[in-house]
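Input record, target 12 of the design panel.
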């Protein structure tokens, strides 16, 4: 949801609406994620619609009531949901303080709930092999296979991979490099592992395309229904169907990033190396990634590539 499409949060003063739009614009620029902006938009609009107050009238009790409130499902929110609601509101109020519109943050009076690390989310080599086995050899299937391998070997986020275009790839001797725009507007250039590159070339050929001749701004992921290339949502839907057919637990695209992080650690890379590989802002974030994946069998990177048949 582009920031220009959000509704007003106040009917009393355009000052707060202007601040709302500015906050979302800054959030999109810093995070580089439209999904984050959409999530923050929904929570902020729900909060101000519920209480009908301008930000300067909000009290800590309002935030507490909203954060712990029962949603449309009729269930009490989990600790993760409560924490996300508080974090969203606190981020907005900190922005208002920086802009000189407020002097205090009502969220500071609230205690953040403690969360218990979830079950491991990473897929094993056997799981990935099962997944690849049921992906069809049609042009669409070969394209999806290339996406899965690119996610697995690069550990890039969904938007970063789905946004790759022909011009993002370049050759440096025998090595293929790719340029990406990551979270928070970070840009980087990394080696594209050969299995992923070969899968991309094969998929494009199935669509009658060649990397040496297609336009630089053309998506690496062709789509019969979208001239701009496969959308993230369509791939997500395809992935869930593949997982169900393979008899694997349903998961989001982010599962490949978790798997790649654990695999890097398994082959001997330090947490610092893995953190840089993932573009994490701190080692603490990386440690959470790895801790959540404890308990899985250790597999070397080469063994994983062999196990999934690439």
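The sequence produced for target 12 reads:
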């Amino acid at each position: 949801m582009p920031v220009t499409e959000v509704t007003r949060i106040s009917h009393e003063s355009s000052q707060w609406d202007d601040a709302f739009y500015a906050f979302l614009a800054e959030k999109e620029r810093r995070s580089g994620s439209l999904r984050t902006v959409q999530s923050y938009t929904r929570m902020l609009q729900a909060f101000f619609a519920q209480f009908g107050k301008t930000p300067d009238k909000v009290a800590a009790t309002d935030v507490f009531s909203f954060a712990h409130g029962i949603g449309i499902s009729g269930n009490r929110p989990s600790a993760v949901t409560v924490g996300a609601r508080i974090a969203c509101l606190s981020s907005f109020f900190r922005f208002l303080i920086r802009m000189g519109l407020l002097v205090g943050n009502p969220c500071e009076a609230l205690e953040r709930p403690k969360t218990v690390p979830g079950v491991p989310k990473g897929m094993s080599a056997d799981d990935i092999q099962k997944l690849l086995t049921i992906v069809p050899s049609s042009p669409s299937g070969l394209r999806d296979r290339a996406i899965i391998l690119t996610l697995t070997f690069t550990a890039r986020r969904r938007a970063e991979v789905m946004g790759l275009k022909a011009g993002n790839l370049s050759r440096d001797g025998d090595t293929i490099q790719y340029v990406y725009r990551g979270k928070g507007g970070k840009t980087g250039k990394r080696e594209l592992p050969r299995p992923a590159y070969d899968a991309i070339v094969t998929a494009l050929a199935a669509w009658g395309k060649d990397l040496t001749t297609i336009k630089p701004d053309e998506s690496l992921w062709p789509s019969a229904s979208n001239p701009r290339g496969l959308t993230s949502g369509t791939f997500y839907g395809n992935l869930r169907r593949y997982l169900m057919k393979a008899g694997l637990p349903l998961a989001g695209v982010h599962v490949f990033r978790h798997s790649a992080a654990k695999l890097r650690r398994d082959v001997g890379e330090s947490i610092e190396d893995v953190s840089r590989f993932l573009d994490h802002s701190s080692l603490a974030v990386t440690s959470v990634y790895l801790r959540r994946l404890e308990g899985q069998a250790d597999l070397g990177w080469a063994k994983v590539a062999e196990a999934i048949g690439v």
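Residues 3-109 form a domain with the DNA polymerase; domain 1 fold (CATH 1.10.150).
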